[in-house]
């Protein structure tokens, strides 16, 4: 399946330019950046930018846009490793465990300076403003998630605010950014903005769903990570409403007792929360696909549709 | 003395705009930003930007520039609190002790998103490029400082590379940024660039000098902080050359034995390293003042000269 490839459009050029733009004469930075390149990742965000560009017939500055969204995402990962105390990040030892928090944060800042550079190279100050808004919502989403854990205050509205910020905002910047660079009509720009927004939400909803309901062998990481970090996602929120006592108990001890996770999984299956999640994700995917209607048919448009539909396939 | 005022040009407008631009609807971010506003600081970087603008007769976007340099600096402080494990930062408890590393790093990222926004509001993509370069050198300087500690590798060239990155680069962006916004001749732009560079180096040289040789009562913080953090500055580098054995011994135990610091101070006085530092700072200050020659006389030009000269007064 196409979408599982590292990057099907201009793949090698992207990786080459990435290496180039990450280069630093400071050895410690270079080590962390090489780690990032080697770790790879799915390059979902640059793919979104390049596909959106291709769906518009190609826009000037598409490569800078693709690199900028990937680097902003990578910087977040470097800054997030401290936050999440993540045990596995993209299947490799988290950078901060090797080099310490200090270099991790500062190398993230180095990446952000490269984002600034890439944006400047498009010559489009409006793109800088678009990224400013995305970066603001990203930081706010991440802090809000932390605040929710600290206050133990949760609601569906807040959950959506968090995932919109930490995931959908940057994906929206990837697709809407291509429209901006292409100077297309506000209708087409709106279409790509909506696609990025719905796709981003579908992506995070699916990620959060699998974090509880997935199979470790397919995920490549242990399930229940969110619960162990005290994060409430949509499905645990629903379980809290349906089975307040048992769910609260398990969440309070962060699923540390044997059988806690399988108990929650069983409740989600029996009570319908799991099915409701799948329905919710399906609706988002459909909204993402429907958003693309104003765009003329093209291979790239089909690839964007497939990218969204793949979120559903991952649930099976 | 003028330069000890919070900000003598457009001071209240700056503080008002700062408050406005820092506003976030996320409570945890708001708490950290309020802390930053309350802590104040000397606002040296925005002062440089506003004085450089005034020396050119006022340039469009000067306030955005002034806010952007201050916020980039503040973001560095938030990211640095983790790095330095600083006990006192701007005379208040470091933000991270109150709210944890997570919120500190992410609130720094929030500030950086506001920098992006401010830059975009000038409508000048060249300013974005100027900041990209400054931010890159800033991150590289900070990581290099960390790397030097880790490898215990020190040289005068590397010391200058570190302080150029972590301090002078952003001060240069403040003054050169004003020239860029004013579309002035390359001669005037070069003058303001040079001023920022030399002033920045003088500023950090003076800071590093006082960290060993200053009086705690005047500094408002304990002396010897750099040595305790394993950082080698120019004066300790000279002491290492002059008195290798005793200095290395003290540095290795990070001045933890009683009398270590006063011993180094005495050696610096007796062997001439202290006097040589003062001479070095004086030369930088003179270079900063001389750089301003191409600018027409004005109150602002005089204020920039006084700002540089004040670095010498602080040594007495």
Keyword list:
homodimer; 316 residues; mainly alpha; Farnesyl Diphosphate Synthase; two-stranded antiparallel sheet; disordered N terminus
In short:
Chain A has 316 residues and is mainly alpha-helical. Chain A has helices spanning 11-22, 27-39, 44-55, 62-84, 95-121, 125-151, 156-181, 186-213, 216-219, 225-228, 234-242, 244-252, 260-271, 273-291, 299-313, and strands spanning 88-89, 92-93.
Number of strands of chain A: 2
Radius of gyration of chain A, rounded? 20 Å
Structural class from helices and strands of chain A? mainly alpha
In the CATH hierarchy, the architecture of chain A is Orthogonal Bundle
Q: Work out the helicity level of chain A.
A: over 70%
Which H/E pattern describes the elements of chain A?
A: HHHHEEHHHHHHHHHHH
What does this structure look like?
The structure is a homodimer of 316-residue chains. In chain A, helix 6 runs antiparallel to helix 7. Chain A has a two-stranded antiparallel sheet. Chain A is globular and about 55 Å long. Chain A is mostly helical. Chain A has one domain: Farnesyl Diphosphate Synthase (Orthogonal Bundle), CATH 1.10.600.10. Chain A contains 15 helices and two strands. Helices cover 76% and strands 1% of the residues of chain A. The N terminus of chain A is likely disordered. The interface between A and B is large, with 49 and 49 residues.
Secondary structure topology:
The structure is a homodimer of 316-residue chains.
Chain A: H1 11-22, H2 27-39, H3 44-55, H4 62-84, E1 88-89, E2 92-93, H5 95-121, H6 125-151, H7 156-181, H8 186-213, H9 216-219, H10 225-228, H11 234-242, H12 244-252, H13 260-271, H14 273-291, H15 299-313
Antiparallel strand pairs in A: 1-2
Helix pairs in contact in A: 1-2, 2-5, 3-4, 3-7, 3-15, 4-5, 4-7, 6-7, 7-8, 8-14, 11-12, 11-13, 14-15
């Amino acid at each position: 399946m196409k979408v599982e490839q590292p990057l099907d459009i201009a793949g090698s050029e992207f990786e080459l330019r990435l290496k180039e733009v990450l280069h630093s004469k400071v050895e410690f930075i270079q080590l962390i950046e090489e780690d990032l390149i080697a770790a790879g990742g799915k390059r979902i965000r640059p793919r979104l930018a390049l596909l959106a560009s291709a769906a518009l017939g190609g826009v000037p500055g598409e490569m800078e846009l693709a690199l900028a969204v990937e680097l902003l995402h990578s910087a977040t990962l470097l800054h997030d490793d401290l936050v999440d105390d993540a045990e596995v990040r993209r299947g490799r030892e988290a950078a901060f465990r090797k080099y310490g928090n200090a270099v991790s944060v500062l190398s993230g800042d180095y990446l952000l300076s490269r984002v600034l550079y890439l944006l400047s190279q498009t010559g489009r100050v409006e793109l800088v403003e678009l990224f400013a808004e995305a970066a603001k919502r990203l930081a706010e989403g991440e802090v809000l998630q932390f605040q929710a854990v600290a206050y133990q205050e949760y609601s569906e509205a807040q959950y959506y605010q968090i995932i919109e910020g930490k995931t959908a905002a940057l994906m929206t910047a990837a697709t809407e950014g291509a429209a901006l660079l292409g100077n297309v009509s506000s209708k087409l720009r709106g279409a790509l903005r909506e696609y990025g927004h719905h796709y981003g939400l579908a992506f995070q909803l699916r990620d959060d769903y699998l974090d509880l309901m997935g199979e470790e062998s397919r995920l490549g990481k242990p399930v229940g990570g969110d619960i162990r970090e005290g994060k409430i996602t949509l499905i645990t929120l629903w379980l809290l409403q349906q089975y307040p006592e048992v769910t609260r108990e398990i969440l309070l001890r962060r699923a540390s007792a044997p059988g806690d996770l399988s108990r929650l999984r069983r409740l989600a299956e029996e009570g319908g929360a799991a099915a409701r999640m799948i329905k919710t994700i399906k609706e988002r995917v459909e909204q993402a696909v429907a958003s693309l209607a104003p765009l003329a048919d093209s291979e790239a448009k089909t690839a964007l549709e497939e990218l969204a539909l793949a979120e559903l396939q991952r649930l099976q």
